[in-house]
Amino acid sequence: MKKQQLQVMLRLQDEINSVVNTEWRGQNFPWYRAIWVESAELLDHYGWKWWKKQSPEMDQVKLELVDIWHFGLSLELQHGAPEVVAERMLGELEATTARAGDFREHLEAFTLNTLASRSFDLVGFAQLMADVELDFAELYRRYVGKNVLNRFRQDNGYKDGSYVKTWQGREDNEHLAELAGSLDTAAADYGEQLYLALESRYQSTAVA
């Protein structure tokens, strides 16, 4: 199951990157820099200021981790096809035993490794997941949802500014969350089902 889900996520990432730029592999985009910036945003949601009371915003923390995963997958895809990359990533993940610890210190180590190597620190990311109790099944569900939403926005005018995120009185991510809850995440075509459901609801709004 995990191997299949990895392959699905890598394929979806390849597709959304190709929507943005068909020659994305040859562009050498600084994905590592995006991870670094997202890590800073992530730390803000978790809390680090000792001079004021702060509590981790766990849902936002997990959302930021999913955004980092998008960039990490893009880095991994620079080195091969989704099926080949999934095999290697799976082996690395299965060899990793991560236990919850100091999230802030682990995030700093992950960021330093990312900047030093300009690559994706998969083991460090697995540690961050363990720190915030984000299991692989939830990562998959959240990733596919965000990926589908990103692709849907691109297909409906996000790039030229014509897409409006709010319809039927709610933001598109709320529609997405509702629709995702009605589908089987174990289905091989879960992403396609979710996209079609979102598209159907959006089109019915346009007609109305």
TrEMBL record:
**Could you tell me what this protein is called?**
dUTP diphosphatase
* Taxon lineage: Bacteria, Pseudomonadati, Pseudomonadota, Gammaproteobacteria, Cellvibrionales
Q: Report any Pfam family annotated for this entry.
A: dUTPase_2
